[in-house]
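Entry:
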Amino acid sequence: MAGKRIFTDQELKEMSGTTLDKALQAIDAGDKEKAKKLAIQAQKEYQHLHDGYFIWVSGLLSYIYKNHGIDCLEEAEKFAHTIEAKVVFKPPEKKDFKSVAEHRLKGLKGHMEPVTIEEDDEKIVMTMHPCGSGERIIKMGGYEAGLARVKEAHNITWQHKDFPIYCCHCPIGEILTYERTGDLVGVKFEPEEIGKGRCGFVNYKNPADIPEKYYKRIGKKKPTASKK
């Protein structure tokens, strides 16, 4: 192959840049079919990295748990969450209910799976179809491939046994929120058997309406006087 070109100059130009920019250019040029094709291509590219990183992280967590136990796993997760909150997953600047709900939805859509939103007088419920991280790993066969499940019931597993290790970040997120603020801003709901049924997120308009069970499962007590 030495000395022989593999790609033409035009092919190299097409391969350069970002797929999103090319999709936007196609829209501006009125080429709807090309724009659609590029939009699908862009999601596949993002999904490839998205899935690779959550398997990578789950592999690291599995190593920590298998070799150092659940206390070390919890410590490592809390450390990582603290760094994330300073760099990437920062809390919303506005603290009103609408802004907090919109901030959470923006994060969920980053998993590139459909989300349904429902609201009643008490709360907003956001449900992914499927969960684009924890449930996706299960459906991909990650645990059959060697990722760990946390055997013991624990605060970081919502008191479930054989809990998928990636999913521990949800209980830990609630624990850290409680320890930082003295209450829960929002909670997650899970099926009886993780991965068989939908998980989702609930933001209560009045924290006093959060059922006590959500505090008990992470080893915390419900505040006696939650504020609106």
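The beta strands are 115-119, 123-128, 149-150, 163-164, 187-189, 200-204.
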